[in-house]
Task: structure prediction
Amino acid sequence: MFKDMIKTIVEAYGPSGRERTAAEVIKAFVAPHADKVYYDALGNLIACKKGVSGKKIMLATHMDQIGLIVTHIDDKGFLRVSNVGGVSPTVSIAREVMFENGARGVTSFETEKKKITEAGMPELFIDIGAKSREEAEAKVEVGDVAVYAPHFFEMGRFITCGALDDRLCCAIAAEAFNTMETEHDVYAVFTVQEEVGCRGAGPAAYAIEPDLAIALDVTATGDTPKCAAMSVTAGNGPTIKVMDSSVIVPVSVREFLKKCAEAENIPYQYEVLRAGGTDTSAIQRTKDGVLAGCISIGTRYIHSPVETASMDDIENAVKLLKAALRQKVLPEA
Result:
């Protein structure tokens, strides 16, 4: 079942720069449906299915999640940390975390001088139950990265877990890739290091040279109490990106996705994100430029252990992506 695939993918370990465990999970889902599956030098996972049109479409969705990297282990065995990606110290306090080797711990902060609302990354630490540096070093090394321990659950038609950003979209891309009908060559690229500067997507696009690229990512919503105003509501359809702080999507690509949605009676919303960016921008600037757009899922509480999204939006995003891949005529500049 699709939801089972989502759960399996979002629960996999894979912070920026250490995506291979998550990549192997995704690879198991797409490999049976691909003509070729491979890793590039940066670690992007690329699944390719050949068509007959001579045109190439690139799907891009990032595998990496935010994390906490160990910078120092003190004499009592507590781990001092720094952020990998956009980690909020306040959101990261009193959380269960896990490392790639299975070691687990809990986070807290120095309470002598700070209140929880004042604590920053220098005050944050991880307790793995060690009584000394030596005992801690038997489990964890400086440079190891912890992520929020995953806890996937359902709330009606909503699902909640850490790493929905962006494993949720990895599952959407995998589902569309596995069941699509298309005349084009399709490259499903599960990218690395998006959370630390969109580092993986550009080199992948440089090698593929797509005629069209569609990125998939999460975006903020404006539907929770007293949040910043934004015209995206979770459950009202996947979004078609217009602009964020890193990219302006070409009108031809926006209109292409809009027509695909309307032809299939798929609900959609427009997304204008005031801050933040996606792999779309890195792909767009590759070589002499690539026509690139983005389908996003409105997600509440992004970069937290309880990221929350609507299954209705998720399922409609699969439909929209498959509708786009079916089109014989692709947008032009």
